Amino acid sequence: MAWGGFRRLVLSENFVLYLSLLMFALLWLFIPRIASPMNLSNISSNMWPLFALVVGQMFVLILGGIDLSQASTMGLVSVVGGIIMSSRLDPALFAKNPLWGFVLSADGGLLGGSMLAVPVGIAAMLGVGMLVGLINGLAVAKFKMPAFMVTLVAMIFVRGLAIYLTRSENISYLPDAYVAIGTGQIGFVPYSFFVALVLGLVAHTVLNFTLWGRWFFAVGKNVRTSVVSGVPADKVIILGYVFSGFCAAVGSILYSARLAGGRPTLGQDLLLDIIGAAVIGGISLFGGKGKVLWALFGVLFFRLLSNSLNMLNLSFYMVNIVKGGVILLAALLDVTRTRFLAWQAG
């Protein structure tokens, strides 16, 4: 009887949530300040931008692919926003910039000081993210290139482009209205929560209540069978990568607004967190399986883990070692659960 209960617990869709609550309770005993209002607020603020990124990655993973360029796309998107919205630039830092004199000046970026700066800047940032996703999707769907190789090359290229456009300098003096997106809150709830909530609801609706959602899972389970069944696999794959790029842009907006600057290196340390949270949540690396709720549980677990490791004052290397080990265990658990369910069904 006890074994049956344990098996149901491990196979439950809410297993990661239960694990997160258990971990939090244990950490509370050894690190009481983890439950302080300030720390809980910090965990919440860090959750929602990561959640936006994981939702985008989830769509690609469901297809049986992967998007390694998400983190680098954040940096480029952040830079584009700064180039458009900044109201002041230091000539000593930016005079050698390739855009200086016709896009950038001492008075700021393209629309620095204009009422249109924020809406145009955000639209451009979303557009750049979707463009990177479109290029990735076309390469994977039309040219049948491996997703790993395509997005790895995109990661390197996009990161280099962001650094080239800024000469590695951060772009500051962004409009207050933009910064408020990342720092503002209603009561104790940050604005980023509402952005993530809308994104999560849209993703949930698409996956569970639309024909496109069924196509995503069909392509992820078996692309050849889905094509024979009449599924427009190429369009589905392209859309998945475009949405991943869109979510990367949303994450970049939330992070760069919080940091009040366009940073070419924004997100360069987040790739492990994105993939890790997705895998821990139960989104399969083999395709055909994923839910928005799982993404949320994975983000919660990973943020609690990261927060506790930082509170223990572990070195950067040790933190990454622990994170890597947890991700490996999550992947092994995913494989074990998948095989057990297949055996049970057979």
Description of the structure:
The chain is mainly α and 346 residues long. It has a single domain, classed as Orthogonal Bundle (ABC transporter involved in vitamin B12 uptake, BtuC). 72% of the residues lie in helices and 1% in strands. It contains 15 helices and two strands. It has a two-stranded antiparallel sheet. α10 crosses α12. The longest helix has 30 residues, at 316-345. It is globular. The mean pLDDT is 92.
Brief sketch in words of this structure:
The protein is an all-alpha fold and 346 residues long. The chain has helices at residues 2-11, 15-30, 37-62, 70-85, 91-94, 117-141, 147-166, 176-183, 191-209, 211-221, 223-228, 233-259, 271-281, 292-311, 316-345, and strands spanning 185-186, 189-190.
Supply database-style keywords.
single chain, 346 residues, mainly alpha, ABC transporter involved in vitamin B12 uptake, BtuC, 15 helices, 72% helix, 1% strand, globular
SSE inventory with pairings:
Layout: H1 2-11, H2 15-30, H3 37-62, H4 70-85, H5 91-94, H6 117-141, H7 147-166, H8 176-183, E1 185-186, E2 189-190, H9 191-209, H10 211-221, H11 223-228, H12 233-259, H13 271-281, H14 292-311, H15 316-345
Antiparallel strand pairs: 1-2
Assigned CATH class? Mainly Alpha
How many β-strands, per DSSP?
2
Helix content, binned percent: over 70%
| Number of distinct helices | 15
Query: What does the overall shape look like?
Result: globular
Radius of gyration: 21 Å
The run of helices and strands is: HHHHHHHHEEHHHHHHH
The CA-CA distance between the termini, in Å, is 23 Å
Main beta sheet: strand number and arrangement?
A: 2 strands, antiparallel
Unreliable stretches covering 5 or more consecutive residues:
none
Strand residue percentage: under 5%
**Any idea of the CATH topology?**
ABC transporter involved in vitamin B12 uptake, BtuC
The CATH architecture can be given as Orthogonal Bundle
Spatial sequence of strands, sheet with the most strands: 1-2
Q: Give the tally of structural domains.
A: 1
Structural class: mainly alpha
The average pLDDT is 92
